[in-house]
Write a structure and sequence with these properties.
alpha/beta; Rossmann fold; two-stranded parallel sheet; 5 helices; globular
Length: about 170
């Protein structure tokens, strides 16, 4: 999620709290992250100016099945390396599904949506990983088992998005 600012930062940093929702402050410090923030502001401006529906998707790391299985192995070997993004991902098919739901929706105006998988890329419970590698990340609600540390509640509520793919089934 480059829009938050940590993805390509000189020194990657984790979010301030989890589960991370769309209200999380954007803390960009690199050109790519800045471009994402500007894209969202342009989308908001177009909606205000024209009434056009604009949906900004904050996709987690988008991966093909063969890619996320390989990343899950890397996460198992060095979980600290992926702490800055809280071990998240989204299957390319779920990313496309979220886009389709947005195209089929009506009357949303301008909205920002997190789009992630339902689970993390680790076999270790997410709360345990956070305690060990991200002790400063405020945990705002329980995270069950290996569930994601990102909220897609808004996408579920407004688009009907529920992730369908998982690296665990590959």
């Amino acid at each position: 999620l480059a829009a938050l600012g940590g993805a390509y930062a000189t020194t990657p940093f984790p979010p301030l709290y989890a589960p991370v929702d769309e209200h999380h402050p954007l803390q960009v410090e690199d050109p790519y992250g800045l471009s994402k923030e500007v894209d969202e502001r342009i989308g908001s401006m177009f909606h205000r100016r024209t009434g056009m529906t604009v949906l900004a998707y904050r996709f987690h790391w988008i991966a093909q099945p063969d890619e996320y299985v390989a990343r899950a192995i890397q996460v198992r070997e060095r979980p600290e390396r992926w702490a800055h993004d809280l071990w998240g991902y989204v299957d390319v098919r779920d990313a496309a599904y979220a886009c389709r739901l947005g195209i089929e929706s009506e009357g949303l105006g301008f909205e920002v949506f997190n789009v992630t998988a339902a689970d993390s890329l680790s076999e270790v419970p997410t709360e345990e990983l956070m305690r060990r590698y991200c002790p400063d990340v405020q945990q705002r609600e329980p995270i069950e088992g290996t569930a994601r540390a990102w909220s897609t509640e808004k996408a579920r509520r407004l688009l009907g998005y529920t992730p369908r793919q998982s690296w665990r089934g590959e």
